[in-house]
């Protein structure tokens, strides 16, 4: 009976003796083998059999097409991993397979370890690429769901790529925008170019974390559409100069038209009509008397007219981190004699303690002498819009971080560099105070700190990377080993597994950790690795999106560690082979 999980390899070899030996070897590794004696036969089998998981392809196949040509024809129809075989090591043979999506080049008569490791490494690399492809596909679906376009700019040439949805927003069809316009500044309205360039230069110089601007872009018909563009530099050269920038753009034409219509209406309607059906407030600055509508009370989590309306009541309801900016904005409008004032900020509802976002907009009324004597304003709850913006930005941020880690994995073969980069990217992406990666060894009964990233220079954010006896944190690490699930703990709600062995007192007491999460990965018979994230200066709750991000990172880094082990094994095997041949 066939093993339903057994992988099938197509072995392409024109020499019967070699075919027999290699078939026996592959079967001893646990693979099912389908033989092919020529390039033509290989193409026919590979295209017609979707159960083939990998192709082991001889470069020279006698009469007919050779291995590289057979691979090209196969890859034109489907994309299986292909490992090339040859008895030659000359440069010309390696050159023959360049440009083909191969997964390795193995010299015939290599020892069993080399062949087996090469095949396993090819499978792992293929699976990694599939994970990345699926991630990119999910991002594409997310962008399509959000009705946004994706753009990509080559900074040195100014060439622009827009996704199909991006082209559609600007009125282009199947021919695509790139066939018509080569430079980004050819799209932007001349009046918006200065602001666009200013925001762009601020991001390129590192003064702004992202590029964000509202601008008008020319459509295919010659009309203008308002676009909200957000992006980030993804690739820089060795000197730090930007090479490639990627982002999204959203059609906000309707919102802009609505804003314009609102401004026009504001010129025709009196102040009461302007803010009807919203929470409104009216304060007499001479008597300090403030009148609020029932809707304002409801927005702030109060029963209508529950308290006498005061400016202090509204100011105290503002989020502590936003209170100073709110007070400063209003005070500035009075001091400078400004007619209008406007701000978005957070509030804390009195009834539920929930944090909400509000948009406040008002006008200062002057008397005949020009003195401001009255402030009339409106307040609107914009929480859903702000949360959607924050979630969209977070999702884009997570995808960009995963891409950065994937680039490190592809370019580095050193586990220390990969782990250190991963810890740094995780720490910066999740904005934690401290991020570490530990090697938890049950075999050696110890926990070894491999790398550490610290957020800032603060006396309470001290390095803790060290080697600890496993017994110090035995209960939580044993729980992770058993369940293979992450653990969270808070200083005011210590996880039960940190209480049993007293490790909670060490972490939350001696180390002053207010919030932590331990996320395990790369399990084997000896133990596992764990991402350790600490919040020292303030407490936080770990969101499902953040935990999902850690899960994605752990998969990438686990595959990278497998890759490194296989490369190390391959190098050791090659060294042993050379030593044996030398004897």
Question: Explain this structure to me?
Answer:
- This protein has about 575 residues and is of the alpha+beta class.
- It folds into four domains: about 10-110, 3-Layer(aba) Sandwich (Rossmann fold); about 145-255, Beta-Lactamase; about 270-380, PAS domain (Beta-Lactamase, 2-Layer Sandwich), CATH 3.30.450.20; about 390-570, Beta-Lactamase.
- The protein has helices at about 15-30, 40-50, 65-75, 90-95, 110-145, 165-170, 195-205, 255-270, 270-275, 295-300, 310-315, 320-335, 385-410, 415-430, 475-485, 495-500, 505-510, 545-580, and strands spanning about 10, 30-35, 50-60, 80-85, 100-105, 150-155, 160, 210-220, 225-235, 240-250, 280-285, 290, 340-350, 355-365, 370-380, 435-440, 445-455, 465-470, 485-490, 515-525, 525-535.
- The strands form four sheets. The chain has a six-stranded antiparallel sheet with strand order 18-17-16-21-20-19, with helices on both faces. A five-stranded parallel sheet has the order 2-1-3-4-5, with helices on both faces. A five-stranded antiparallel sheet has the order 7-6-10-9-8.
- Strand 11 and strand 12 (about 290) form a beta hairpin.
- Helix 2 (about 40-50) runs parallel beside helix 3 and helix 14 runs antiparallel to helix 18.
- The protein is globular and about 105 Å long.
CATH architecture annotation of the largest domain = 2-Layer Sandwich
Number of extended strands? 21
User: Mean pLDDT score, rounded?
Assistant: 84
Q: Summarize the main sheet.
A: 6 strands, antiparallel
Q: Any low-confidence stretches, pLDDT <50, length ≥5?
A: 269-277
End-to-end Cα distance: 45 Å
Structural class: alpha+beta
